[in-house]
Amino acid sequence: MKHQTKLSEEQQQPSRQVGIEQQTQQQSAREFANAEEMLRYDAAHTTVPPGIAQRLQKSTGQPGAPPPRSWWRNLLGR
Hints:
The chain is mainly α and 78 residues long. It is 71% helix and 0% strand.
């Protein structure tokens, strides 16, 4: 009796694997008209880690701040 129970559990396990694989394939089967649409979809579904968001905001600078002087203006003294 125990042998039959064990067999039925082993037979059920591959069917569970197939169900998981089908779910994964269904989620990844998505087509986009162009690259821009794909990037918009990705941006909407991807969360940015807080550390990266802070670094990005810092690197873009404050809005309304004057742009830094170019190297050639510093060299010519203008």
